[in-house]
Model the fold of this input.
Amino acid sequence: MLGSILTRRPRAVLALALAVFCLLTVGASGALDSFALNRFERQNSESSLVRRDLIDTFATGSPNITMLVTATDGDVRSDRVTAIGQALTDELAVLPDVVEVRSFWQPGAPETLASRDFRHALILAVVPGDADHVRRVVLPAIETTLLTEVDPAVTITLGGADQVFREVAAQASTDFLRAELIVLPLVLLLLWAVLRRWTLALVTIGMGLFCVVGTLALLRVATVFTEISTFAANIALVMGIGLGVDYGLFMIYRFREELAAGAQVPTAVRRAVAGAGRTIVFSAVTVGASLAVLLVFGFPFLSSFAYAGIAVAAVSALAAVVILPAALYLLGQRAAPARPARALDRGFWYRVADTVIRRPVATGGAALLVLLVLGAPALGMNFGAPDDRVLGGAPPVRSMYDTIRADFATEEADALQVLARQADPAEVEAYAATLSSVPGVLRVDSAAGSFADGTAVPGPPSTGMSAGQTTWLRVLPTGERLLADPSGLVAEIRAVPAPFAVAVGGYPAELADYRDGISARLPLVALLIMAVTYAVLFLMTGSVLAPLKAAVLNMLSMSVMFGVLVWGFQNGALADVLGFAPTGSIEPSIPILMFCIAYGLSMDYEVFLLARIKEDYDRTGDPIGSIPRGVARSAPLVTAAALILAASFAVYSTGEVVFLQQLGIGMALTVAVDATLVRGVLVPALMRLAGRANWWAPGPLRRLHERVGLHEAQHADSSPGRNGALV
Done:
């Protein structure tokens, strides 16, 4: 039906597509400005409630703005630098939105606000509000007001968590735009190498651009109803080009195959839409569903990727199934391959598959061993919190924190805050002393005084830390403990018995709560993604075993991705090559995002491979011979698409944000391994061992599939002889 419409009015379809593209471009043009900046925080967690209560009750909290003041000559205790520091402190305190300022130059300030050699000192500020306001309004105001004319006696570097991730977002955008300038001509060149037709290569990459613009426009609409992270634009770029090219190749290869079988152009278009179009829709549903499960986490940062994935899958399918066939109809024989196709049984992938099914145990076992070796490092994965070291190179904020880690006893901005209610003042002193005895705690400040190693520290009690029966304590960890195990410290502080009700917050606690919130839902997400993809593959194949096998093999591909993340990034094997500082852990949301993308793309190739094998089996009834024939028809396309996609992802590893480097390296390797070892060796080996059981289902499920499954119409002339060419 759709193919017939497209062949009757192809020019009208393309004209409408061009008009829609222009409208989408207008919508996409303002998308980036409508996206939000996010923090790594978990709403309604213990730490987020402490943050809110401290602001409401005490006008304090975790400092999210830091200024490092460095004396160019002498130290920060000199009269001149002291005057500068005091002036900066006062000027920062009167800026709008700033509710609290602490600095080394205030009376009674602790010496931990200065470096051990007193060459550097800190000014800390608390600015409530969402990340958008702080990063887009407050930080630029500080730069304009306080940092434009600086006394030559000092140098000042602006930092803090919001400044770090403000620079991460800016650098990520720069890296992506630079990568796209490389990716587009690279993909165009690879498309020409695969298709040998410049016109087809340009049309295919045009599909990718349509997908990017369409996805951005849809995400802008979504901002009316929900918060969309700026990083969703990056997913729109990389997946828009990737899926647009993938699905474009699916349709072109099928169109060429029909032409080679002797079909006229209108018939070839209709059959390509009926065959490849069905596969593309299945694939798009699988990719969209794989990313949709990110909504389960409930974090705006991850939910944004879910919306981006759903949008890019929908737009990519629309472009490949509606717009591209109209273009192919007009191109006609000019879209045919420049050289005659080889016979099916003479192709490289037919010979590989035929060898595999002759020795399925040996070949499949060897491939499985390689995957297990590559994935073994994943067993040591350690989730941790991100910090300034996600920035490569030597930006000022990164150099600032290198200085703090090396020269300061601790980072005051990373203190834990313990909020206590119904607290007896007499019990606060004993509790503060107990907290100061926890290994890795440098000092505890409270209304009853300051404590270290279980004993009181000389000095006046801290002011403004009690309001009626509500009080709070500042637990300052050592720099070494923060580097080694911040989440463990949070757990130990929370485990200390208290004589009153307490809640623990602060930046380390916020990151620990964020990590724990993600980790707690990982099993549910894995279960959902496998259940959804299993259901989609069952609807396509009617088989019980084929979807299960696909899920297991996909998990093997995922283990390779996690293995390279642990080996290369967590353990630092790629640090010198890519220029980043390993931290011994991995921020959890990026691997989860990569898992959902990679799982969807792996199913993308699985759907295409199974569709061709199932099509051959339905036509011939041969459970063994259909394997190499189906592989031979699909593997050249899968390999070409994977090569282009892997090259596109690999370009992003040249960026200076570790997140993008992880995405580039991990995804490129996973796509390459999945399209070769998994689809080229393991799938044929397992299908050979299963035989007819590949397509078996119990009676009730078979009848269910006959009723609700999606079936491809068979053509009367779809004989093995007519479809036996490899294009």
